[in-house]
Amino acid sequence: MQIDLSGKRAVVSGSTLGIGFAIAKGLAEAGARVVINGRSEASVKKARSELLAAVPGAQVEGIAADLATAAGVKKFVGQVPETDILVNNLGIFEPKPFEEIADADWLRFFETNVMSGVRLSRAYVPGMRKKDWGRIVFISSESGLNIPVEMVHYGMTKTAQLAISRGLAATVAGTGITVNSVLPGPTRSEGVATLTATLAKEQGVSQAQVENEFVAKYRPSSLIKRLATVDEVANMVVYVCSQQASATSGAALRVDGGVVATIA
């Protein structure tokens, strides 16, 4: 199967690093014109340069905007009024005991992880309806099903994304637009790699040992018994954005290494 997204424009929110950058790279490799996004001009410029180096000849735009705010989304959409593919990847996480999660934290997580995708989807669905073609993907998490006790507020937002994705898929039923969620499990993003490298140095052990111990302790139900790579997550997203995935909509697609212990 060869995925060809030539002629399609793809917006990936929060895409200067990690899973978001890997998704942008995968879409660019498939021929899409990609719009990457971050909060600062410097981070966007750096990511764009890295993406062009990784995919020579790619068509890449970079737009700095804080999509966790209504004003930031308005600014972004003003520069990119239409898109064929929207990947709602922007997200934050922060381990914190439940008793210490203040109202401001709940609202900040909801604005960033949930409302960014709501606002972008609301802005781009009309254009997709006109073309009778579109792909919207919410990057949720296995934490949306297995709520992590160390960050309940994060899990709440990931569950909310599943509900919105399914509801939006039903809203555009019968059109050429599909809406899905992708649920990564523990993934070796830049942030995770930096953390495990630091812990390994402090403990005098290998980084691989730290990663394996994390999976064994915190995600013992994992079937692959390791962290996923950002490219493994991106591969699923690129497929869901393709023409070949036209019969997949309203789905919650797990790239969790089997962490969620269910057959459905």
Question: What are the SSEs and their pairings?
Answer:
Layout (H helix, E strand, L loop, with lengths): L8 E4 L5 H12 L3 E6 L2 H14 L5 E5 L5 H10 L5 E4 L14 H29 L2 E6 L12 H20 L5 E8 L2 E2 L1 H14 L3 H12 L9 E2 H11 L11 E4 L9
Parallel strand pairs: 1-2, 1-4, 2-3, 4-5, 5-6, 6-9, 7-8
Summary keywords:
single chain; 264 residues; alpha/beta; seven-stranded parallel β-sheet; two-stranded parallel sheet; 9 strands; globular
What does this structure look like?
This protein is an alpha/beta fold and 264 residues long. Helix content is 46%, strand content 16%. It is built from 8 helices and 9 strands. The protein has helices at residues 18-29, 41-54, 70-79, 103-131, 152-171, 190-203, 207-218, 230-240; strands spanning 9-12, 33-38, 60-64, 85-88, 134-139, 177-184, 187-188, 228-229, 252-255. It has a 7-stranded parallel beta sheet, with helices on both faces. Strands 7-8 form a two-stranded parallel ribbon. Strand 4, helix 4 and strand 5 (134-139) form a beta-alpha-beta unit. Helix 1 (18-29) crosses helix 8 (230-240) and helix 6 crosses helix 7 (207-218). The longest helix has 29 residues, at 103-131.
Instruction: Tell me, rounded to a whole number, the average pLDDT.
Output: 96
**Main β-sheet description:** 7 strands, parallel
- Written as H for each helix and E for each strand, in order along the chain, the element string is EHEHEHEHEHEEHHEHE
Low-confidence stretches: none
Per DSSP, the total helix count is 8
The proportion of strand residues reads 15-25%
> What separation lies between the terminal Cα atoms?
26 Å
Characterize the overall form.
globular
Any idea what the radius of gyration is?
Answer: 18 Å
- Read across the widest sheet, the strand sequence of neighbours is 3-2-1-4-5-6-9
Structural class: alpha/beta
Helix content: 40-55%
- Write down how many β-strands occur, each being a DSSP E stretch of 2 or more residues: 9
